[in-house]
Amino acid sequence: MNSQGDDAAAEEFKVYRPRVPQLGRCPGSPLAPFPFGGSLSTTRQEDQLTEAPMETESIELTRDDLVGQLEQLRHELGNAGGPTDKDAPLRPYQIELLKLQRYLERDKIPMIVIFEGRDASGKGGTIRRITRYMNEKRYKVVALGKPTNEQRTQWYFQRYIENFPAGGEMVLFDRSWYNRAMVEPVFGFCTKTQYRDFLRGVVGFEKDLVRQGFVLVKLYFSVEKDVQAERFARRRTDPLRQWKLSEIDVQAQEYWDDFTEMKHRMLERTSTGSAPWTIIRSNSKKKARLNAMKVILNAVDYDDRNPELDYTPDPEIVISGKRELQRMDTERDTLGRPRG
Prior knowledge:
Elements: H1 3-12, E1 14-18, E2 56-60, H2 63-79, H3 91-107, E3 111-117, H4 123-131, E4 139-142, H5 149-152, H6 158-161, E5 170-174, H7 183-187, H8 192-211, E6 215-222, H9 225-237, H10 247-250, H11 256-270, E7 277-281, H12 285-298, E8 318-320, H13 321-335
Helix pairs in contact: 3-12, 4-12
């Protein structure tokens, strides 16, 4: 290369770097008080992002600046798509998930995995790690929005059933029909009658699923209040995460005790022998992701398991619904209320 020519070109080179758009939020309406003592008329307003006009600024770069940027770009491109260091321990279990997927396909077994829990408890990140290398034709992630006017007139479970897997497929619900057990009653999105009818019907509904050959795994991600607050604070200041923060999320801390009460009722009424709840302690996202994978792998006796892997979940991270209820009852007796 002609060094003198390169130097001259670099001195004249200008890079136009876009300014980051400012993100805004339309104000939400006040939420109703806890529904069992007040109004049930509140409706949810979705967040909206507004972008400021794009502007550019001219920055003169030297040849050394350009070379440094090229080296950084090569490094980033070389790592694109590959597992990060923090995800390296997950790789052997991601390989096992592929074996599980092949087994389900071969024996035409439908599998449903439910991810429930408070906002910012790590559900979405875990789902992304679980599905990262899976065959996209044989799994689906379902995260339904609010029901349409037509869906409101249908049987409550109907819109979820429309997304159920066929034999050989896996469906992962990022929030599920258990919206009616927690979010909806807390914020007044359902009536007391609808809530009670759900609790009466869901146990039989899930028993029928298991009886008909579905593998059903119910995971509840449990995060402590201060950890949730830290994650919300990060979302507020990180432009890449601001889209995750909704008006409902902002009020999650205010309604913490209400969610705790609804969690207790849900575990007490819907954790059964055929469809038990498994609690994933998710203060550590790294540990939560690994142990959630272990729970899913242990739900099916698939072929060709790697005998050198440890499939035993960490008892400090993975807890049965029954044990979680005992903990919450003990804290209620000693502290006056369970922590979460």
